[in-house]
Amino acid sequence: MPGITRRVFAASSVAAAASTLFTPARAQVYPARPVSLIVPWGAGGGSDATARIIATLLEKELGQPFNVVNLTGGSGVVGHGEIATARPDGYTIGMLTVEIAMLHWQAMTHLTPRNFTPLALMNEDPPGVQVSTSSPYKSAKDLVNAIKASPPGRFRASGTGQGGIWHLALVGWMQAMGMPANQVAWSASNGAAPAMQDLVAGNLDLTTCSVPEARATIEASQARSLAIMAHARNPSFPDVPTLKETLGVDYSTSSWRGIAAPKGVSPEIVTRLTTALKKVSDSSAFKDFMTGRGFGTVWRDAGEFETFMEQADRQMGQAMRAAGFAKS
To answer: pTM value?
Structure first.
């Protein structure tokens, strides 16, 4: 080989082969294998159902299975912890729920929304104000006037356990109306369904669970929803006004679900996942599934979801301090 030694030729050949091996054309496109989607709550619930329709549609978009893994325990601490501590390679993502903005205030975990890489907010369900059909209160204004005229604790409400999201919604609402956090006594329950049963039985004066959770009782003509704590009406329940419409108070809160990854996931993977999630959110399959169950749909991209969680975290902290539940 004139002008080139055998050693130089061999070295240049190896370099050329390595260069070809690692060119972008040969790089694996994410995702190259199945992805785990962790849900901090049990199978069969609303979070699980929402995660499974998202996972099914992500598989269609990205060509790899998205396997839902239910990791329960510690009021959501276990599952959220597994999402936060997973390898930031994009192959473990998860569903964040409103509890991630609550648990650290109760000193149940060190995790906050800042321990995650937000991808998208896809569901938001504001609480409603429900009374039984036998209640004398036909509007939220009638109910509030009666609450204000009564001594603290005279009215009883429920919708979840002590310090749960619907309890804090009531506390925030009372404060927004200029009343003490304990103006309405809270009766802890194991969820919205038993609370609605207690409402119908006359053991409660109102519930503050979401309207979808109260839907069966409302459709059975055993209860009615007087208002929702949201900026706009729910299209699935167009006859239920917002608090601002009926009371003039601009207070809103919600239970919500979004998709996130561990801290440190690459921007390229974040963009790919968020783009796919946007297509899922816009699909008729997702919208029909959520509407059929009365679940609210919303879209906030990674940056908007991060801002949303920061605001939710502050709001939950204020409500917990007012109710005496904050320990951190």
So the answer is: 0.80
